[in-house]
Protein: ABC transporter permease
Organism: Bifidobacterium longum subsp. infantis
Amino acid sequence: MFDVLFAGLIHGSAYALVAVGMSLIFGVTNVANFAQGSIVAVGMMIAWWLGSSWGWGIVPTFVAVLVVTALLGLIMNVAIIAPLEGRKPIAALLATIGVGQVLDNGLQVVFGPQTRPFPKLLQTYNLQVAGVRFGTSDIVMVTLAVLSMLGLWAFLKFGKAGQAIRATSQDPEAAMQMGIPVKAIRNLSFVIGAVLAGVSGIFVGLFNGNINPMNGGTIGMTAFVAATIGGLGSIPGAVVGGLVLGVVEAFGISLFGDGAHDLITFGALIIILIVKPQGLLGPKTDVKSEPLTGTFLGGGRAITLPWWGNLIGAVALVSTPFFFNDYLSGVGTQVAIYAIAAVGLTLISGSAGQTILGMAGPFAVGAYASAILATQAHWPFLVALPAAGVIAALVASVLTFPVWRFSGHYVAIATIGVGAVMVAIIRLAEPLTKGSLGIQGIPFPKVFGVTLYTQQMMYLLDVIVLLVTLVIVMRIRTAHLGRVFEAVGSDREASEALSIRTGAYKALAYALAAFFAGLAGSLLAHQYTYIDPTIFNSNMSILILTIIVLGGMNSPLGAVLGSIVLIGAPELLRFASDARILLYGVLLVLVILFRPQGLFARKG
């Protein structure tokens, strides 16, 4: 029991270091920095390289990581975040997601994707007390964490620059009027946050023993959960949240196994959001400008085609399967499947103005529902397909039902947890889903007695479902319901003043988006004929969101264009296959900086 508690405190200390930096940045800039975990990976991989290839000791390695990550934090704010000042906070959020993709996959390209042992910069498991083995690295890490927290507290409390940070956090405009260099203070906040993340990467590597460049994403998301549990923007809350989450995870995994990790972590997030949405030590008042909600509607509006233009496009799309070979048709199936999910997402993240970061969850539920109905209940495909969409919508709606009464950014955070919980439940429900082994032998789609076993046949099916999705979504957008969605997304307070139940309409838009994601999942399952939980990861959620940002968050046709560019182009050109997600990240950042309204939209 004591060894589990000790392990939880060690892991919790690492989470706390990363979460403190995240909360500091959030408090000063109102930016939820989703690249924080990727900076952990940068520190970890630099320490591995210096320790393994150059034989550096802990002190020079520590200094090198500190310098590199400090520069990285400064560059990220100056080059990417600061230019977005004045735009809706969601722009900066999405930009940090893009930066995280660039860093994660850049590390993978530079160092290789393989798992490798971390060098023994400090002794591990060389000490024993009360039957619990631990190492010098653990003592140093906990000591460093405590000293860092106390030092940061003293700096913010008594230091001149720290007091300027606190003033900027409370009211940037008033701080500027008082002569505080707000831009420099924001730079300093990003530098401190990046350093804390990079240094924690060294100790995460020592504790885990084996590392790979993609470890940072998981750590960063867990640290974000810790910061949210403690209260975004609260430094003490980040410490408490990190330690609490580390201990809860340790005992949960001890009892239920490592497969329950995501369910424990993100289940705790959802429970906290329902019980105390501001976090354990967060401010009782809501944030002034919600960082995880809003759209780019102020910067552009969707381009619409005349009826004959839509007809020509539909005919051209349906014709492509008859001219494509197997390879091109295989690429086309991926483009169409992701486009279906993205078109549905425009209703909630575009029209209704609510960012959704966990669409891989409904996608997974639809895929597994259709696979189970086909393989175990022997339902025909044409029945399993819409049933999968309905099941995905119901599951998503039930799991998010308690959170729609909150403000937008809390809902967005909840969708992260809901998406992860859906996949975690699938992994744990082994009697039904086969757990991590996945489901094999899923039959090819069979339509009116014809089995669609060729790539061209399956591509034609996907195109037809995509066209039906476009027709439904466009009809919704032009109907009264669509206008209400747009009113809610454009101005929540004005909509509520008109007695519009904004939470209920966002919940409905989310259910519709989950339905179409479920359809996409069903098509994917029957065309892969095998699925497992690893397919439905956070990269899938980010990719679907990136597609609509690229095409135009409020443009269904833009979602199709975005899918062609992001899914089709790298496949067709066969370039940089190992760096594809890196290219997604670069493209996401460039679009937000220079074409925020999307490719298939015009400035308003």
User: Anything to note?
Assistant: Strands lie at 116-117, 127-129, 132-134, 210-211, 301-302, 446-447, 450-451, 601-602. Residues 299-594 form a domain with the ABC transporter involved in vitamin B12 uptake, BtuC fold (CATH 1.10.3470).
